[in-house]
Amino acid sequence: MGVSTRASLVSASFVRLANSLVGEFDVVDLLHVLATESVLLLDASAAGLLLADSDGILQVLASTSEESQLVESLQSAAGAGPCVDCYNSGATVSIADIATTVERWPVFAPAALSQGFRSVHAIPMRVRGQTIGALNMFRSDTGELNSEDSAIGQALADVATISILQERAVRESTILNEQLQHALNSRILIEQAKGVIAFTSNVDMDEAFRRLRNHARAHRTPLSKVAENVINRAISL
Known about the structure:
There is one protein chain. By secondary structure, this protein is an alpha+beta fold. It has two domains: 3-167, Beta-Lactamase (2-Layer Sandwich); 171-237, Arc Repressor Mutant, subunit A (Orthogonal Bundle), CATH 1.10.10. 56% of the residues lie in helices and 15% in strands. The protein has helices at residues 3-19, 27-41, 66-78, 82-89, 108-114, 147-167, 173-201, 205-218, 223-231; strands at residues 46-52, 58-63, 93-95, 119-127, 130-139. It has a five-stranded antiparallel β-sheet, sandwiched between helices. A hairpin with a 2-residue loop joins strand 4 and strand 5 (130-139). Helix 7 packs across helix 8. It is globular and about 50 Å long. The model has no long low-confidence stretch (mean pLDDT 83).
């Protein structure tokens, strides 16, 4: 990839991230953009994003595939894995070969390997020393995360983090917890709606989410509201 091409891709990704802030702010949509752009820019096979709830427990808020969502969910439930370590330390955790971490993470590592992932790199979502979550990038090949990719990934995560906190005018941790809890509740509705769409339209979960998100964007409606309408059978996708 040439320098100019890489620069153009990075610029376009930040534009798309900024565009997700236009109109009514939607945390889940912003985080999905962050995960998607990370895959595009950083040569990843999939990405997942976890945010801490009001009890400090990481929950899956966005993922680019059902495989990465499964692995992230198992990691969250086990309370152990690269994303958990990244969140706890506030520093990037880069695993060049997941196969070497089976003893360290007996739940996460086998799950990731079973889904075809061979390396993983977790980048913290942080601001002013406070870490609110982490971005996981999965790759199908082994290998380190180079310094350029690490810097770009951190910049994307930083922009998203600052956007979340500034948009909601978060100044105290209690307000932050309320916002994150609202996002988690929205995600539950979205997962339920995906199941309804997949069942009624006989499509897989990835296609169900694409339909849900495309409808939300086309009608400039929050994903959670569209999901609620799907669940209540007010609309069919």
